[in-house]
Amino acid sequence: MESYRQSTLLENIKSSIPSREFSEKEKDSLLLEILNQCIVNLVKIGDKNGRDTHEQFMPPNKKLPTISIKDYLARLMKYSPCSKECFVASLLYMDRLTVECGLILNSYNIHRILITTVLISTKYMDDIFYNNEFYSQVGGISLKEMNNLELEFLKLLKFSAFCSVPILNDYQREIEACKDRYLSYLNPSSVGKLLIISPLEYSPSNLSPRRTHSPQVPNSGPYYQSSRRGSCDYDPNFRVVPNNNTINSNCAA
Length: 253
Known about the structure:
Elements: H1 9-15, H2 30-49, H3 69-79, H4 85-101, H5 110-125, H6 132-139, H7 143-156, H8 165-184, E1 239-240, E2 247-248
Antiparallel strand pairs: 1-2
Helix pairs in contact: 1-8, 2-3, 3-5, 4-5, 4-8, 5-6, 5-7, 6-7
């Protein structure tokens, strides 16, 4: 039987081309587009060729989440008060899971792997971060499951969440180069003229990848309250209640 090797997200980013034209006005949304396209590509391959044995990342009800990967990514980016670098680290973690642990990304596990890698990356990258209860609400899962997913993730990586600065910079540079390709698709003459943002910002000592400026987050209180919990096994309409900052959805799990 022919062995199966899943390509990495970094490889996909390097070869990613836009599916449509993008303008400069859409530049801020390109990270979502790039992440979605690359992750969806790997998930399709995993669904077709892979048979994953990592049951710990499967939905408890064994059913496919009905919310799309893009909508779920958009939800994480909208409600997670973390730096954008955390999503870069999230890609690195997913590649480590696939390369070092043999985990296969598929339609069943991708949502829970996404919320888990974002949770871990915020704790590693940012000096200020929200707790597991907050991210369980953002991810649409129970607090108990969020805790279990974090523990299972750390077990697979032997409790090493270390992210090499040079490797993180490689991911960041490839993402910025990919943004360049996406924008130049509309106007080929603009290739090389787009300003590539500097790689990750670190403290002057460069001894730690933690950001020197932490994201502004509200005081504790309402952000940790939720009368109804959304679920990534469904496709809720998300909204933030005015003057409350509480994440709500139209479904209760």
